[in-house]
Amino acid sequence: MMDILYQRGRASVAEIHQALPDRPSYSAVRAKLRVLEEKGHVRHEEESLRYVYMPTLARETARRSALRHLVSTFFEGSVEQAMTALLDLSAARLSPQELDRISGLIEAARKEGERA
After folding, report:
1. What is the reported pLDDT for 93?
2. 26: which residues sit within 8 A by CB, 6+ positions away?
3. Which residues 6+ apart lie within 8 Å of 46 measured at CB?
4. DSSP state of 94
5. pLDDT of res. 113
6. 82 to each of 17, 52, 68, how far by Cα in Å?
7. Mean pLDDT, 10 residues at a time, the chain of 116 residues
8. Positive/negative CA dihedral, 84, 68, 94, 3
9. How far is the C-alpha of 97 from the C-alpha of 51, rounded, in Å?
10. How much is the CA Rg of the chain, to the nearest whole Å?
11. Within the chain, where are the H helices?
């Protein structure tokens, strides 16, 4: 649902429901949006007797928060364990350019750590 909202910027429950693969019930979509709103991830405005939802955080901010939660929950806070798992999943599919970029990011992090 968040993906749909980030792609469109704003959408009604019906629009979100239509865009979902393996659609849950309309009521389930409404309930999930209510939970997302209670958690502060989305907000709504009323337009012509319907609610239109939009994300409250920039996609990058939400991405970082979700990633921090994922690393904390599944990898005991270890970025190394998370990176190892990601590389195990995708190593065969990474292009030489992607591997060079990852290597460059690691090198930049190493230099930043030395300065701190």
Report:
1. 84
2. 13, 14, 17
3. 52
4. -
5. 81
6. 32, 36, 10
7. 95 96 94 95 94 95 91 94 87 84 91 81
8. positive
9. 44
10. 19
11. 2-8, 13-19, 26-38, 59-74, 79-90, 96-115
Contact 29, 17 (CB under 8 A): yes
User: How far is residue 65 from each of residues 3, 19, 71, 87, measured CA to CA in Å?
Assistant: 15, 25, 10, 21
- What does the block give as tokens for 33? 């949006």
Tokens of 109: 């992090």
Q: Amino acid identity of 110?
A: R
Phi, psi angles (nearest 5°) of residue 54: -145, 150
CA angle, 109 then 110 then 114, to 5°: 115
In angstroms, rounded to a whole number, what is the distance separating the alpha carbons of residues 93 and 91? 5
Long-range contacts of 76-85, Cβ-Cβ distance < 8 Å, separation of 24 or more: none
Return the bridge partners of 54, or none.
43
The Cα 53–Cα 78 span in angstroms is 35
CA distance 91 to 26: 39
Is residue 43 a contact partner of residue 56, using CB atoms and an 8 Å limit? yes
